[in-house]
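so im writing up the methods section and need the Methyltransferase domain-containing protein record in one place, dumping it here so i stop losing it
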Amino acid sequence: MYLSPRLYHRFVRPQWSTQKYIHDHIRSMVSLKSRNVLDFGCGTGANCSICDAGYYYGVDPDAQRIEFAKELHPDYDFMVFDEKRIPLADQAIDLILIIAVLHHIPDEQITTYLHEFRRVLKPDGQMMIIEPYLCPQRKLGNWFMQKYDDGEHIRSEDGYLQLFDHGEYKYEVIKRFRKFFFYNELVFTATPTAFPKHDRQASSSLPHLKASVKI
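--- predicted struct ---
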């Protein structure tokens, strides 16, 4: 069921649960200070608050949610994603956040997006992914997620990791945790094993981001 941006922000991304189940995990694993961050599938922009204004870029195919995010967070940059090309220059991003997005996307589309992630990441950039996953030891949770979650592509741990492996990414599982008792959550990082040649002509008309300072 589609929720309006306001209802989505209130019920799917309330501040307390976003802080506990997303932001606290991200902050414990990576520094965001002065790093160019792409929030892929940003929704209404709930994750921008942990990033520096001017270094955060949220993209989402839902134009209504993007407009709502701009109203809520006028100091941050949000862009509509055409589901083909991420509207950023090559090698511009230090960190890509993908939070509860991939379980809404079929395998073949993720394979296409992996090429775009590789294009916009800096050579030393990385991705951090948090997704619900099917766990053989937690059948009740699996049943609950498959019945009530809007995502039609909740995968096993191996299902997610194999997509990145086939896309020529290195990955590392960081942690697994429970959310709301029924949800099994997987946290992993991914980095490309090879980068494409820089496409200067294609990049010239796209936003160039601030230099990153890693801390």
